């Protein structure tokens, strides 16, 4: 979930900042948020599935070696291999939904709220800071480091999005 939300927010900053800055005085519609959300959702799903599945399959291969099975991939070809694929699909689905929410949420909120058009990217960066505070609390980390780290990452990606001007 954390990967998905973070990925979604960063995708929104990368893909939408150029369009937001070009819009100057006009309002952004929900179309941009939906397009960015779909792109973010798909990339998060694929990335999460591939990474999670590879990690789980490697675990099965290692376990096969540790119990001295003749073929290194013997466990991967059993029901355990099917379970690993199912668990990876579930992880990918969670990451995809979280990425969609992370990408669409701030853009839709920025489009709906009255105020300057650049409010959406500012909300995205602020959301990263809030995420940093939540993660620091959950993991008993230093809140200031998590918040500042994610805020800096958000600003860097915001600038990158403005320079690349993709959407």
Helical amount among residues, as a percent range? over 70%
Number of helices: 5
Instruction: Quote the average pLDDT.
Output: 89
Largest sheet, in brief, is: none
**CA gyration radius, whole angstroms:** 20 Å
Structural class: mainly alpha
Q: What are the low-pLDDT stretches, counting only 5+ consecutive residues below 50?
A: none
Order of helices and strands: HHHHH
User: How many runs of DSSP E, i.e. beta strands?
Assistant: 0
Total domains = 1
**Approximate strand percentage:** under 5%
Separation of termini? 26 Å
The coarse silhouette is: elongated
SSE layout:
Blueprint: H1 2-23, H2 30-66, H3 79-112, H4 119-138, H5 143-164
Helix pairs in contact: 1-2, 1-3, 1-4, 1-5, 2-3, 3-4, 4-5
List keywords for this structure.
167 residues
Note down, in words, how this protein is organized.
This protein is mainly alpha-helical and 167 residues long. The chain is 81% helix and 0% strand. It has 5 helices and no strands. α1 (2-23) packs antiparallel against α2. The longest helix is centred in the first third of the chain and has 37 residues, at 30-66. The radius of gyration is 20 Å and the shape is elongated. The relative contact order is 0.21. The mean pLDDT is 89.
